[in-house]
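Model it.
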Amino acid sequence: MHTTQLLIADEWVDASSGATAETINPATGETIGTFADGGAADVDAAVAAARAGFESDAWQSMTPDARGRLLWRIADLLERDAEEIAALETLDQGQPTFISSQINLPLAAQVFRYYAGWATKIEGKVSPVSIPGNLSYQRRVPLGVCGLITPWNFPFAIAAWKLAPALATGNAVVLKPAEQTPLSTVRLVEICREAGVPPGVVNLVTGGPDAGRALVAHPGVDKISFTGSTAVGQEIVRASADDLKRVSLELGGKAPSIICPDADLDAAVIGNLQGAVFNTGQACGAYTRFFVHRSVADEFTTKLAAAADSLAIGPGQDPTTVVGPLVSAEHLDRVASYVDSGRAEGAQLVTGGSRVDGELANGYFYRPTVFADVRDEMAIAREEIFGPVLAVMPYDDLDEAVARANGTEYGLAGVVWTKDLTTAHTLPPRLRAGTVFVNQLPLIDPGSPWGGFGMSGHGREMGEYSIDEFTETQTTFINLA
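Modeled.
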C-alpha cells in the first residue's frame, strides 16, 4: 500500500483536515494506496510557501546556467528511477508498460533536458523608439506562482511538461494532480527535492475538485496551467475572471482522420487503430472519427474490425497487453453509455460494444468497439468519449470530408492518410486543428508546440511557445539625455 502526503515548502505533511482518499488499481478494482485529501486551507499554505520560494534568495539569485543544470539533474534522476516510476504509473493509471516505460518516462526526461537548454536562452530585445534620448528594452520575466493542474490519463508526462518550462523560466509552482492518479506525481516531486530545487519552489497538493477550485480562485496564484475536460476548462476561465490571472488550457478533442482514396489502406487501418486505442483511447489527441472515401469504406471497416478484435486486452503489467483498463468504474460506465447511444441512434455495431468478463471482470476493461455508418449528428460522432470507440464515416469527395471534419467544436488534432505529396501539404491547412499529422500516430515532441483551437483550449505547451506561457514581457525606459 502506498501512503502519501502533501509537500508544503520543505515539509511532507498530512492534509490540515486529516482527510485521506484512496487510489485504485483499475486492472483489479483494488485499493493500492491512500493520499492526503487536501482542501482550501492546504492550498492557502502551499500558495504562501510558493510565494516565499519564488521570492527567496536561493531561487532569485540562481543563475540561468544553474537553473538549467538543476533541470538536467532532474532528468538524470528520472532516468535512474525510470523502471520504478513506470511501474507506479501503470499500477495507478492502468496504461500498458510499453507506454509508461518506453514513451512517457523517456518523454519526461527529454522535456526536462529540452527546457534545461532554454534556461540560458530566454532573451529580450531593444526596441527603436522615437523619444529623443531614450533607450527602451524588454526582457522576459517569470509570472510568479503557477498552479499546475494535471489530468489522470498521462499524469507523469503532463506534469513534467508543465513543470519543466515553469522552472526554466524562474517561477514557483503548486502541483495538483488528478485525484484518480496521484502516485507518480508524488514521486516526481520527491525527485525535484532530491535534485536540489529550493524549498517552496515546488509544492504539491493532492486532492479532489475542491482543491483544484481553491487553487484556481486563489488571489495569490498568478497563472493556471490546466489539462483536462472542456467543461472544467470553462469553469476555470469563469473563476479566473475576478483577478484576471493568466490561464492556459489544453482541453478535449475529437480528432478526425481523413483516409484519402489513394492512401495505403493497410497502413491507414493499423495507424488509425493504434492512434485510436493508444492508452485505451484515453488521450485527447486520439483518432476517433474516420472519414473514409466511400470506394474503400467497406474494406477499411472490415479490416479495422478484424484488427481491433486481435488486440490483446489485459492489465498493463502484462508485456503482451495492448489495450489496458479504463481509469475508473465511473469512466467505464461513461464509455459504455456512449456505446449504448450509438446503438440507439442507429449506428451499425461491427465489433466490441461490451465489457470484458472472465478473469478481467473485476477490472475496468472495455472491448475496442467499431461502429460503421455513423452520421455526423450522432453523439458518438460529436462528443469526446475518451475510450476505445471508433466511428467510420464514409464520404464522397475531399471538400465534403474537410467540411465534416471541421464540423465540431473541438480543434486539437487531426490526421490525413494519403500517398499524394500535394494532398499531404494542401489538406492540413484546411483543417481547424492545432496539430495535423500525416500518415502517422499522434506523437508529441518537446520541440514542437501542442494545443488546440476552439473548445480544445488556448495556449501552447512544448517548444518555445511554452516559454511565452510562463513569462511576461517587461519594458524598461531609460532617459539618456
